[in-house]
């Protein structure tokens, strides 16, 4: 009888859902391994350059919802035919050099604190699972909910079977919580982007991390906690001219264009433009 009562009144497990890009890492997981894939012969110089430029633009001004969809389609086409084992090998071998230095120390500490409290930590991301999983392993996180891509005969087909952006990410949280009996009213969620407001609204403890303007405004209006992660500083790095076989003058010129794009976007788009920037 005592055991039955204990089971009936025991607290449901608590979850902590973490967005990835600009929340756990000060970079873009979707673009992080571009140089390494080029070195491995999986993409061309032109594709490596386009990935680096997209990463620079993302880190400087973010991405609109439409740009996220365009990036998804472009990357899906690019990876069609890639062997899953090759991707896993390259990400595993280069993770410590490419991504680990970009992990926020504050995020590591927070994840450890949740685990010590007995909470179930989940990384939930619009980036592809195959790229998110090695980062999760580096952090000691066992559960990943992310964008899924179809695989046939050990190769990616280029088809995106599940895309976790915006409302779809919130629905994934709701479904995951139902399947594992998590108590969302006592659970936590962390994100930097207004696109994740639907996910943040599902939990009793939403936290805005390095929030964009729209999320900062929403968090303030709703009494949500906001946190700033500073270590390391968010950085982007354009490719070395020798690494991708492009002239140094071109590198410098396009870097200048990327930086100029920040000021153009802010001057032309104003507040409304800033409010539409998203992350994965």
From TrEMBL:
**Organism domain of life:** Bacteria
- Membrane-crossing ranges are 244-268
Q: Which CDD domains match?
A: HAD_PGPPase
Q: Which InterPro entries match?
A: HAD-like_SerB, HAD-like_sf, HAD_hydro_SerB1, HAD_sf
Q: Which UniProt keywords apply?
A: Hydrolase, Magnesium, Membrane, Metal-binding, Transmembrane, Transmembrane helix
A molecular function (GO) term: metal ion binding
* Family, similarity comment: Belongs to the HAD-like hydrolase superfamily. SerB family.
Any idea what this protein is called? Phosphoserine phosphatase
| Annotated source species | Corynebacterium ureicelerivorans
Q: What is the lineage of its organism?
A: Bacteria, Bacillati, Actinomycetota, Actinomycetes, Mycobacteriales
